[in-house]
Predict the structure.
Amino acid sequence: MKKLSRSVSLPIAVCLLFGLAACGSNKDAPSTSQSSAGGTKPAESAKLRIVWWGSQARHDATKMVLDLYSKNNPGITFEPDFSGFDSYWDKLATQSAAKNAPDIIQMDAQYFNEYAGRKQLADLSGINVNDLDPNLLSAGKYQDKLFAIPIGSNPFGMVYNKTAIEKMGISGPGDDWTWDDLFQLARDIQPKLEKGKYALRDFTIDGEVYEMFQLSKGKGPLSSSEGKLNVDEQTWLEWCALFDKLREEGVVPPAEITVSEKKYDPQLDLLLNGTVLIKQSYASDYPAWESVQPGVFGLAKAPRSTQAGGYIKPAMYWAISAESKHIEQSKQFIDFFINDKEAADILGVTRGVPVSSQILDYLQPKLNDAAKAQLGLINATKTDANPFTVGPKGFGNFIVDFNKVGAEIVFDRITPEQAYRDIVKHWEADIK
Amino acid sequence: MGERVNSAYKLTADHRKVRDSGKKIKSGRRWESPLAGYLFISPWLLGFFLFTFWPMIQSAYFSFTEYSLLEAPQWIGLDNFNKIINEDRLFYKSLGVTFWFVFASVPLKLLTALLVAVVLNRKLRGMHFYRTLIYFPSLVGTSVAIAILWSNMLGTDGFVNKLLSYVGIEGKSWIGSPDTALGTLILLAMWQFGASMVIFLAGLKQISGELYEAASVDGASKARQFVSITIPLLSPVILFNLVLQTISAFQMFTQAFVITKGGPINSTYMYALYLYEKAFGRLEMGYASALAWVLLLIIGAVTALIFFSSRYWVFYATDGGKSK
């Protein structure tokens, strides 16, 4: 029964969910068939399934790199599959359940522990990572074993509407600004704005921004390195009080505007539609702002308090499915992807700033303005960055719940004290 | 579904009557064996067993397991159900939201459908055109694209508020406020009345014109005719629509998923959305399967309640005018 259920029914359930078309696609995968291709080693020929999420620019660049690799390595072909971020994980989970996961998988920090912890990923030792920052590389390790290779470094900071702020005769943030500077800047801007526009986003609903605040107070990240809850109650209450005041003063938008934001949507993203002038941003978000309104926005380092608040996390990783029949070939491709100059020329910063210091030195003179802005944020953050901690299994869900609790405060349904108790409860339920 | 079965049954019955009446029908023998019939419906049967029945068995099994999709399921007995009933706040929250949605949207939708059907039941030039036009939104109604369109129209700077501003009303973000978000989704559901409307229209056409003529002769007003003739004679159709719409409203997903994501602060967190997030967002397929079975039981109970109540308000003309 058990055997039958795993092998037969699940694929069927999966087909049911995603349409029949999704199935038959991997039937032609089974390895090593053609040994022709001009006498190259037959063991190396394979058709690799590779998946990633991202924007059109990333899709185009990646496909070109795949073509390049196939040209250099006869016998290796690819079956790429790419999408946006949200549906990506639903599909990957279902494919993995059906033991039908792609060979090469683009992975995210939020999901990394989930997959590595459940033995879905292959050991990646052997890939040349000599030029990678060890701090960044450690974010690809699970229980000291390397299961994912970071492929872009991604500092967290702020994005602001440079053009609008400069037009008011107010100077934008510098690299050494504090949280007080940020709130003062917002209060200076607000009187000069028309009705319905606000200086700052309401960060009460953004656990990740609160984490920067807590880091800057020297209280560490939201989860300790041992995987325990580390939300400091006093710091949290202080944070809520700060934004409560800003809300009252009308420097941040009212609740219903804050919660109906849709990130990156030209009409519904509060930064892009001009409703707020300052909000949080990863460096890798920058092309999304820049592509809608070129030259308008600037990136700023995370504000500091008693210490720096910023950190650098991997923008994303490459990982290999533990079920893959082509682990060696997949490893060779990843090696090529992060270390090859020709590939770097094509990829640019479509996956954040390249992780290999060699490649970065090589690319630097060729970068455009958007890429330079990202690089600037990395260099500013790098000097005193906090170490990045991958949260424990279930941490991604915890952040979702954390932000929902924040929304209840913004709508004035619960007190910050009650919110703290709810946060503790969510941690206990979410972290496994 | 029920109707289809009924009419199929009636067909065979008629057929038998013809055969038994003594006339020899040569072709009758060809259909004697039930095998041929099953063969003809085998594509459907295959689809049903493979893609509906078997997954249902599977999900029944998963509902007694802890199953992360990535690892093999672990048998945990009734733990999932226990947790749902005793600990899960979100279960009750989402169930409450869903009940609100069902109880508000289904009557509203059926009322709209009935009124539109009555209007469209007249003999007018070009009526076919109007019918098509009015049915049209139902063809695209549940699609994701339309849901995205709505979410843009109902935002703070959306089209709806622009319209309101012309008449001097300052709009708000209808889907951004927990007080109005669910109401907005209920009104949006009303827009997809087309399927029920078509069935009502067919039902209206069945009602004999003589009854209305007789009533007019006796001096009954139009309103009186509607209440005393149309509603009773249409009541089996109302029952049918009520059951169908209630079942589908319990499973409401697309709009809640696309327009509000269940927010703000869970005010539109539909049961189906919760189930989906448990299964694929949080990889708790066992728990989600249990949730699905609980929903099945709830829908079953509500449907049974409707059928039970029907004996008091549904009127079958074929029973010689007596309510069943």
Confidence is low (pLDDT under 50) at residues 1-42 of chain A. The two ends of chain A are 28 Å apart (CA to CA). Chain A touches chain B at residues 2, 5-6, 9-10, 12-13, 15-16, 89-90, 93-94, 96-97, 114-115, 118-120, 196, 255-257, 259-260, 262, 267-268, 273, 394, 397, 404, 407-408, 411, 413 (CB under 8 Å).
